[in-house]
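Thread title: Can someone regenerate the structure for this chain?

I was given the following input by a collaborator and told the matching structure tokens would be attached. They weren't. Posting the sequence so someone can regenerate them.
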Amino acid sequence: MSEAVTHSSTAPVAHSELLASLDPLLREWLPRQRWFAGKGRPVTGFSLVAATELLPPTSQLGLLHLLVRAHQPITPTQGALPHPSDCYQLLIGVREALPPRLAPALIGHVEEGPLAGRTVYEALYDPRPADVLLEALRAQARIGELRFEHDPGQEFRDDLVPRLVTSEQSNSSIVYGDTFILKLLRRIVPGINPDLELPLVLSRQGCARVPEPVAWMVAELGEETYTLGVLQPFVQGATDGWELALRELAKGEDFGAEARALGRATAEVHTALARALPTVTLGHAQMKPLVDGMTQRLDAAVQAVPALRPYAPGLRTAFEALAGLTAEGATWTAQRIHGDLHLGQCLRSPSGEWSLIDFEGEPSKPLAERRMPQPPARDIAGMLRSFDYAAHSHRPLVPGWADTCRAAYCTGYAEVAGLDPRTDPVLLRAYETDKAVYEVLYEARHRPDWLPVPLSAVRRLAADATAP
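Best answer:
Regenerated them for you:
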């Protein structure tokens, strides 16, 4: 799709003039958002991918839906990227002036162009624009290139009061009356997003471990479809696994029973996905690039984080051991998985049931890579690392807490899957090592105070050539 092409609804606002007038405001506002992926690099310009008027911007309250590509310079560590710019979904409210309750949503005051003299703001803070989205989903509306769809059997009440969830990171969510939650993807790429694809598949399999999508919104731009948002039931009173683990740690309570139940829930999801979608066998030809990628990420991290260098030879043995098994003819089964599993991606309902959420995968990775079949060990390794993070976030450190959780989780997984992840220690160690290396690089760049957490795992993994 050419970046020069602008798709829009029939509207009186000239889109080239609109973007030019918003440009200086977006350059200041966009990099400050938690979901903006290009932090640390200046925004050099914008191009408009799509613009749709949901409420006329010249009226008392306007609402613009924009897909905007932010252009940024490439740094030497990024190399040659296929797309040196990211496309973001923006919902821009337009008013003469903001009431005090919307002050945190301010983007700025437009000085020129079709919106000159008006104030623009993050519309998701405002109940009326949030209502517009739910109304469009209810009506299965088609507005310009935007398409709103819902499950035919789903009913929508018209008295659901919206509120923005303010703790989001890579996306934004609106809760409607403790009945639904609408997750709006911020970083948009063409193709079917796993956050819609996999929950739909799982619901059709009767898997109760994932909230069933009841509605969704997409953009159809030329021959490409972009997933924009997913509406799912809101699990009222639920606690995410990270918060629950920290709470139990603070009380000195054992978390083993919850970890075991979480292992069972993970296995149920993996089993349902393997039943519904194709699986593949990974032999030497398929495993070699996977192992090479792990090794390359280690080498890059060692260059960036000097504290990692003493452990590099020991860590490399994890990948060498896996390469050795593949050379001997070992094979593994790969399937669709969660892709970014950790305690924060799990919800425990007041009744004690666990659900898995956020199947988007790692947003920084290409969509095609996120949709590839992978060994379930990758999800399992992510959760094992998460137990370790929870343990180290509590002071004083509770000896053995993470080990108990890790063992219980694997036991619960085996009870459903029929196969204990610990029976494949080489593969599990390789994935956990790869995850720990990623964590070291992330913490060194963003939270240096947390660097000792993954480094403690690095020391263990570098010293252990066989067991996870």
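The first strand starts at residue 7 and ends at 8.
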